[in-house]
Specification:
The chain is of the alpha+beta class. It has one domain: Penicillin V Acylase, Chain A. The chain is 28% helix and 25% strand. It is built from 9 helices and 15 strands. The strands form 2 sheets. Strands 1-2-5-6-7-8-9-10-11 form a 9-stranded mixed beta sheet, covered by helices on one side. A 6-stranded antiparallel beta sheet has the order 12-3-4-13-14-15, with helices on one face. The protein is globular and about 50 Å long. The two termini are 28 Å apart. The N terminus is likely disordered.
């Protein structure tokens, strides 16, 4: 596995001011990996607006290509992603979105020149779209070193070419927890992520086309996850934020805490169209009928639960990053595997693979990043 190629001391300073007249200091950007597997890493600091502005400056035309292409692709689909529909969806979603995220979008628009309304429309698409995906978290006696490992496969459309604009963003906010997301140029919602307190998040979509049009009067997980990454310092705090949020659609959420003193993970089944809208499962939970078998120090729900269970049983007690990567490759949705991440939430490490031309993410190199290298100036 290719290791992180560059270690450096971060010297970006913070400034005051939250409007486009006070231009924030620039971000730091390096590249990890090599050859076709290179991934840009951008470190931003300051207020939400400032961090968005810095991202906009660094990404520039890539935002237009990525989000503009995403909007163009969505507009060609029969599911109903018209500008009018996206604007109405955003209007509903925005009432439930943390102000820091909306400020970041405003800064992103000012820094890049890409219109704010188009940024908002692009961020409305996932609320109306489907996801597949897989998630696994294991820890304690299930891993070789007692660390908590968290697997997140994002199975989504590759035809929109989001994977052509990969970026890992590391946020060092003026207030709140430093955190990182592996994302796409201009997309600031979190389909997954990890913060400096060892909190890791993932999801799997379960809403069928037959239930469209979806009721989106609530918080989409991508915005809720960013709020959790900002604010949660423990599994209990992250869980409380999910359990009190106005959730939408059908999803599985995976929430992990890698700190030795509070290590563990929980899985949520979100079913808002049903009478019982939320179910919480811990490891070895006999009430968990969503999977073919339960295990101690492990939660999961994947594209192939039987294969996942067999692998988890056979390798229990020996899991490390390499075995988690092998499991990630095994569970990927062939032809629609966009982005895969393995986290070591105890050591604050992650391994990231994006899809490439004619390649699923699972067939690419998983590039390592050590979050601790970026947290302190």
């Amino acid at each position: 596995m290719k290791k992180l190629l560059v270690a450096f001391l971060l010297g970006a300073g913070l400034i005051t001011g939250c409007d486009s007249g006070n231009q924030p200091a620039g971000a730091t950007m390096i590249t990890i990996g090599s050859g076709a597997d290179q991934i840009p890493v951008i470190v931003v600091s300051g207020t939400a607006y400032e961090m968005g502005y810095q991202l906009g400056q660094k990404l520039g035309e890539k935002i237009n290509a990525c989000l503009g292409g995403f909007l163009e692709f969505a507009g060609q689909q029969p599911q109903g992603f018209s500008e009018r529909t996206l604007d109405k969806t955003w209007e509903i979603l925005a009432t439930h979105i943390d102000e820091r995220i909306k400020e970041e979008m405003r800064g992103l628009a000012d820094g890049s020149g890409f219109p704010l309304v188009k940024i908002q429309r692009a961020h409305a698409i996932p609320a109306l779209a489907d996801f597949a995906c897989s998630g696994v978290a294991l820890w304690g006696k299930a891993s070789i070193d007692g660390h908590l490992y968290h697997l997140r496969n994002l199975d989504f459309i590759k035809q929109a070419h989001l994977q052509d604009y990969p970026v890992i963003v590391i946020y060092r906010p003026k207030a709140g927890q430093a955190h990182t997301i592996a994302t796409f140029a201009g997309y600031v919602g979190a389909h997954s992520g990890m913060n400096e307190r060892g909190i890791v998040l993932g999801e799997k979509g379960e809403s069928p086309h037959s239930e469209a049009p979806f009721d989106v009067d609530g918080v989409h997980f991508s915005f809720l996850f960013r709020q959790i990454l900002y604010d949660a310092q423990s599994l209990q705090e992250a869980a409380s934020m999910i359990e009190t949020a106005p959730l939408i659609k059908r999803y599985f959420f995976y929430v992990s805490d890698g700190k030795p003193e509070s290590m563990g993970a929980v899985k949520y089944q979100i079913s808002t169209p049903d009478t019982v809208k939320l179910r919480r499962f811990s490891d070895a939970d006999k009430n968990d009928n969503t999977v073919p078998g339960v295990l101690p120090d492990c939660i999961y729900y994947t594209m192939d639960n039987q294969a996942a269970l067999q692998n988890l049983q056979e390798n229990s007690g020996t899991f490390d990053a390499e075995k988690m990567i092998a499991l990630s490759r095994r569970l990927a949705a062939e032809g629609g595997n966009l982005l895969n991440i393995i986290y070591d939430a105890t050591a604050l490490r992650m391994w990231v693979a994006y899809a490439g031309k004619n390649q699923d993410a699972a067939s690419r190199e998983y590039v390592e990043l050590q979050l601790l290298d970026y947290l302190n100036p």
